[in-house]
Amino acid sequence: MSLDMNNLKQRTASGLSLALLVxxxxxxxxxxxxxxxxxxxxxxxxxxxxxxxxVAGVIYLSITEFTHLAEAQGFSLSRFRSxxxxxxxxxxxxxxxxxxxxxPLWLALMLALVLACLGSLWSRESLDRALPNQxxxxxxxxxxxxxxxxxxxIFMMEGTLSKTGSRLLVSLYLITWxxxxxxxxxxxxxxxxxxxxxxxxxxxxxxxxxxxxxNFAAASFSKIFFCQEWTWIDVLLIGxxxxxxxxxxxxxxxxxxRGAGTKDSSAxxxxxxxxxxxxxxxxxxxxxxxxxxxxxxxxxxx
Length: 302
Description:
two-stranded antiparallel sheet, two-stranded antiparallel ribbon, mainly alpha
């Protein structure tokens, strides 16, 4: 597979701009800021609630794009109810006020089920599509809500493998996105053996190997510059786990797009050369829970 230079220039310009914007806001806004041995300040620019507003915005936009993919396949899920489910789950998972008794996860799940199912009683959807529509409404809210809620929770961490949770999020984004870029170039130059031809014909085993190289390089960069608390075992395990699940997330979204007969998740490309928001965060939707599980089970964060 050869490189499309015009598309590459567009992808590079928009991708770098987006990455620099997101990573800078996360890193500088999350608390004490240092790069290596250089101290750049110790004030938290964003409160957890400001970050929560951003989480709600991402949930809304990603569910809007998911709705577009579902409608292209003849389904009619409720975007309003799905967004409510997503925000409800995110609040329960993140526990922004530190009190898990305010909205226990079991209660959030029950309310989500009620919203997804009972709400359709007053809709005009076809009854023979009620079950899949309700299922998709619930699924999209749960998927976006859990992933973004966990990112919100990680953002509020302190003293767990990093001085601030924002640095952990920067590391998660770096590992995921650098791996994606490495997979693109290695797959374009050397890709011969198809990874999942039925789902994504351009992805190759060589690209997957490039993805892991990028994951380990980004994890090493994170340890050296702003997550010095990591061990090299952490670098290897986090790099592999995040890299593998990120690729699986990308393939899962590819099945949705292929079923919908579209190239991008958004009706009109939100990010030039990259498609919609869901195209950029599909990997993170699957990598974030695994990253959090590593912090929880290996390092005892709760």
